[in-house]
Design a protein that fits this description.
The complex is a heterotrimer of chains A (about 270), B (about 160) and C (about 250).
Chain A (H helix, E strand, L loop, with lengths): L6 E12 L2 E12 L3 E5 L6 H8 L7 E6 L2 E2 L5 H8 L2 E4 L11 H12 L4 H14 L15 H13 L5 E5 L7 H18 L2 E5 L3 H7 L2 E6 L2 E6 L1 H5 L4 H8 L15 H5 L6
Parallel strand pairs in A: 3-8, 3-9, 6-7, 7-8
Antiparallel strand pairs in A: 1-2, 1-4, 4-5, 9-10
Helix pairs in contact in A: 3-4, 3-5, 4-5, 5-6, 6-7
Chain B lengths: L1 H27 L11 E8 L10 E4 L2 E12 L4 E9 L10 E6 L6 E6 L11 E3 L1 E3 L4 H18 L1
Parallel strand pairs in B: 1-7, 2-6, 5-8
Antiparallel strand pairs in B: 1-4, 2-3, 3-4, 5-6
Chain C lengths: L1 H35 L1 H11 L4 H23 L8 H39 L2 H7 L4 H39 L4 H11 L2 H27 L5 H30 L1
Helix pairs in contact in C: 1-6, 2-6, 3-4, 3-6, 4-6, 4-7, 4-8, 4-9, 6-8, 8-9
The chains are: A alpha/beta (about 270), B alpha/beta (about 160), C mainly alpha (about 250).
C-alpha cells in the first residue's frame, strides 16, 4: 500500500477570495486517513469556508482538492451528491430540522437516500442514538433539547449513513464542561471504533489538544504551523505560541490601530 | 403520524371547499348562456346601424332568450352591418318573415336583438336571412331630430 | 447622483434576472416533485391554504357586505337597487376576489413561507441538507412553491363565493332587496368570461406571491434581523407586483 492512499484529503496551493478579502493563499494541508485532524485559528480566518471548499459548496479560485484520490473539481453533479454522502457533518448549532422529532431527524438521511423499510430504519436510528447516549430522547423535539444534546443528536444524524469522514464545525462552542467532555469522548470513540477519519474545526485549544492527532494552525490565509498538539505548544513561533497559550498580546495585537494616545487625549490630533 | 393524518384531512377539505366555491361561481353566476353549436342553428340579418350591440348579446322573442349573437361584421358590398346569431334548436318554428330589431334592455342596459313573429308558413332554418330589420335607436340622433323639429316649429310661427 | 441611480437600476435588473432563473429552476423541478413527493406538497397546500381559510372567509364576507351597502346607496339613485348583486359579483369576480385574496395570502402565508425558509437558512438547516446530499431546492422550496400556487386560486374562489354570500345577506336581509331579483340580475350580467378572468388572475397572482415569498426566504441574510427584513420585503414586493400584474391582465382582457 503506497503512502499516497494514506492521505485522505490533499489540499494543494489553494487560493480563495471573497470580494476584496483574500481568505486563503497557497494553502497546503494534508489530512491523514484514520486520524483526528484539527484545524485551528483565530476567529474569522475562514475555517468554515475551508470546510465548504472541501465539500465543494464553494469553488476555489486556484489550486486542487483531492479527496480519496479523486479531484473534486472533476465531479459531475450526480457524482457530487454521491461524494457528499461519504461525509458526515456536524454544524455549529446542530442544525436539526425544527419540525421533526429527534428520531425523525436522525432518520432523515435514511428516508431521503434509501428505500429501507421502517423496521430497519428504526433499528439503525436507535443504534446511532444509543451510541451518543440519547436513545431515550428519541421522541423529543429539537426545541426541547439543550445545546449539548442537540449536538449529540446531530452527531448521530451525521453518522447514520456510515460516512468515511466526520467533520465537526466548532463542536465545543457554548457548552458546559460536562457536555464538552461528552463530545470530546464521542469524537475520539467514533473515530477509533468506526475506523473513520475526523476533521475538527475549532478555536478551543484546550479541548482540541486532548483529542487531535495532528493540528493545523491557519493564520493570514496560510498554514502558520502544523504538527501534533505537543509539537505546537512547544513551538518557537510567536504567533503560534500566542494562540496556543491564549496570550492577550503578541503578533495579533491587543490594540486596534488608532492614532497616538497622547495626541488624542490632548486634542492635538483634531487641529 | 397522527399529525400527518390531520394535515391530509385538512388539505382535502380545503381543496374540496375551494373546488366547490369555483363550481358555484362558474355555474350559479352565469346563468342561461350555454348555447352550444350542436343544438342550435345559425341565422343572419342586416342592419343599417347596430348601435352598441355586442357579440354574445342575447336574442329574444316575446321576452324569452332563445339564442345569442355570434358575429357582427361590416358588409362592404351593401354598406350595411351583418349580424350572425344562433337560435336554440328547440325553437325551429319561427316564421321566416319575422322582424328583427335591436333593442335596449332597461335604461342603462345593454342592447339585444328582439324578434317579432311574422305570419309566414315557412320557418327560419340554418343559414336563413331575416329580411325585415330595425336598426338600433341612436339616442343622439333622436335628440337632435327632436331639437330640430321643435326649432323648426318655432321658426314657422 | 446619476451614477447611484444607474447602479441601483443595474442591481434591480440583475436581481430580476436572478429571480427569473430561480423561477425557471423551480418550474423544471415541479413535475417530478409533484409526482414523487406528493405528500410534501399536500402538507404545504395545508400550510398555505387550509390555515389561511379563516382570514379569507371572514374578510370575504365583510368585503361582500360592504359592496352590498355601497352598491345599494349608489344604485338607489337610479332605482336600480336590484342590480346590487350584479355589481358586487362583477367587482368580486374580476378584481377584488383575486387581488384582495392575493394580498391577504401574501400577508399570512407569504410571510410564513419567507420566515420559515429564512430561519432554516439562518440555522444552517439548508446547508445541512446540502451536506447530506439532499437538494434544499427540491425538498424545501419547490413543495412550498407548488403549495402556494395550488392554494391561491382556491382561496380566491372561496373569498369570492363568501363575498357574494355576504352581499346577499346585506342586500336581501338588511336592505330588503328581493332575493330572486338579486340572483337573476346577477346571472344576466355576469359572463363566463368574467369568471375565467378572475380565475386566471388568481392563478397568476398565486405564482407571483409564492415565487416571491420563497425567493425572499431563500435569499434572506441569515441573521434574526435579516429574516425579519425578508419577511417585510415579501409583503411589500408581492403587493406591488400583484397590483402591477392586475393592471396588465385587466388591460389585456379588455
Amino acid at each position: 500500500m503506497n503512502d499516497a492512499t494514506d492521505n485522505l484529503i490533499e489540499i494543494r496551493d489553494l487560493d480563495y477570495a471573497r470580494g476584496h478579502r483574500q481568505i486563503f493563499k497557497d494553502l497546503n494541508i494534508t489530512i491523514q486517513r484514520g486520524q483526528v485532524t484539527a484545524i485551528m485559528g483565530p476567529s474569522g480566518t475562514g475555517k468554515t469556508t475551508l470546510l465548504s471548499l472541501i465539500t465543494r459548496q464553494l469553488w476555489p479560485d486556484r489550486g486542487t482538492i483531492i479527496v480519496d484520490g479523486v479531484n473534486i473539481a472533476d465531479l459531475s453533479q450526480k457524482e457530487l451528491y454521491q461524494f457528499r454522502r461519504r461525509f458526515g457533518m456536524l454544524f455549529q448549532n446542530g442544525a436539526l430540522l425544527t419540525d421533526y422529532s429527534v428520531f425523525e431527524n436522525v432518520a432523515f438521511p435514511l428516508r431521503e437516500h434509501t428505500k429501507l423499510p421502517n423496521r430497519l430504519i428504526r433499528h439503525i436510528v436507535l443504534t446511532k442514538l444509543h451510541a451518543v447516549g440519547l436513545r431515550g430522547a428519541a421522541d423529543m423535539m429539537p426545541a426541547e433539547l439543550s445545546g449539548g444534546m442537540s449536538r449529540r443528536v446531530a452527531l448521530a444524524r451525521a453518522m447514520v449513513m456510515d460516512p468515511y469522514i466526520l467533520i465537526y464545525d466548532e463542536p465545543f462552542v457554548g457548552l458546559d464542561p460536562i457536555s464538552m467532555g461528552v463530545i470530546v469522548r464521542l469524537v475520539r470513540q467514533m473515530n477509533d471504533a468506526l475506523g473513520i477519519s475526523s476533521i475538527i474545526v475549532s478555536h478551543d485549544v484546550q479541548e482540541v489538544s486532548t483529542v487531535a492527532d495532528c493540528s493545523y494552525l491557519i493564520s493570514d490565509g496560510r498554514v502558520a504551523a502544523s504538527g501534533s498538539p505537543d509539537e505546537l505548544s512547544n513551538t518557537s513561533s510567536d504567533l503560534v505560541r500566542q494562540f496556543m497559550h491564549g496570550m492577550a498580546d503578541g503578533p495579533v495585537a491587543f490594540h486596534y490601530s488608532a492614532p497616538d494616545y497622547t495626541e488624542q487625549l490632548l486634542g492635538r490630533d483634531t487641529e | 403520524m397522527q399529525q400527518t393524518r390531520t394535515v391530509e384531512l385538512g388539505t382535502g377539505l380545503f381543496v374540496l371547499l375551494g373546488l366547490a366555491a369555483l363550481f358555484f361561481l362558474t355555474t350559479q353566476t352565469t346563468g342561461n348562456q350555454s348555447f352550444s353549436d350542436g343544438d342550435s342553428y345559425e341565422v343572419s340579418a342586416r342592419f343599417e346601424n347596430v348601435g352598441t350591440l355586442k357579440v354574445r348579446a342575447p336574442v329574444s322573442m316575446s321576452g324569452v332568450t332563445i339564442g345569442r349573437v355570434t358575429a357582427i361584421e361590416f358588409d362592404s358590398a351593401s354598406l350595411e352591418a351583418k349580424v350572425t346569431f344562433i337560435i336554440n334548436q328547440e325553437f325551429d318554428q319561427i316564421p321566416d318573415d319575422s322582424d328583427a330589431a335591436i333593442q335596449t334592455s332597461g335604461m342603462l342596459g345593454s342592447q339585444y336583438i328582439g324578434l317579432q313573429a311574422g305570419g309566414s308558413d315557412t320557418s327560419l332554418q340554418q343559414g336563413s336571412e331575416i329580411e325585415f330589420t330595425q336598426s338600433a335607436i341612436v339616442l343622439e340622433n333622436l335628440i337632435s331630430k327632436y331639437l330640430f323639429n321643435s326649432s323648426g316649429d318655432d321658426e314657422d310661427e | 447622483m446619476f451614477r447611484e441611480l444607474y447602479h441601483t437600476f443595474i442591481d434591480f435588473v440583475r436581481t430580476f434576472g436572478a429571480l427569473q432563473l430561480f423561477f425557471l429552476r423551480l418550474l423544471t423541478n415541479t413535475p417530478s416533485i409533484l409526482v414523487r413527493r406528493f405528500r410534501l406538497v399536500v402538507h404545504q397546500v395545508y400550510n398555505a391554504g387550509a390555515l389561511s381559510l379563516v382570514i379569507i372567509m371572514v374578510c370575504g364576507f365583510f368585503v361582500g357586505g360592504v359592496l352590498g351597502l355601497q352598491g345599494y346607496s349608489n344604485l338607489a339613485r337610479f332605482n336600480a337597487e336590484d342590480s346590487v348583486g350584479a355589481v358586487a359579483a362583477m367587482s368580486l369576480l374580476k378584481e377584488l376576489g383575486p387581488v384582495i385574496t392575493a394580498l391577504l395570502f401574501s400577508g399570512r402565508a407569504g410571510t410564513a413561507l419567507a420566515s420559515e425558509i429564512g430561519l432554516m437558512k439562518a440555522t444552517d438547516q439548508l446547508s445541512a441538507m446540502e451536506m447530506m446530499a439532499i437538494s434544499p431546492l427540491r425538498r424545501v422550496l419547490v413543495p412550498r412553491f407548488i403549495g402556494g400556487v395550488i392554494a391561491m386560486p382556491l382561496l380566491a374562489a372561496v373569498f369570492t363565493a363568501v363575498g357574494l354570500f355576504g352581499a346577499h345577506v346585506v342586500g336581501v336581509s338588511m336592505l330588503g332587496i328581493d332575493a330572486g331579483a338579486f340572483w337573476s340580475q346577477l346571472q344576466n350580467i355576469v359572463d363566463p368570461a368574467d369568471v375565467y378572468e378572475g380565475i386566471i388572475k388568481s392563478f397568476v397572482f398565486g405564482v407571483a406571491a409564492s415565487l416571491l415569498a420563497v425567493w425572499e426566504g431563500y435569499n434572506a441574510i441569515p441573521t434574526a434581523e435579516g429574516v425579519g427584513r425578508a419577511t417585510t420585503r415579501t409583503v411589500v414586493i408581492t403587493a406591488i407586483s400583484i397590483l402591477i400584474l392586475d393592471f396588465m391582465i385587466t388591460a389585456i382582457a379588455i
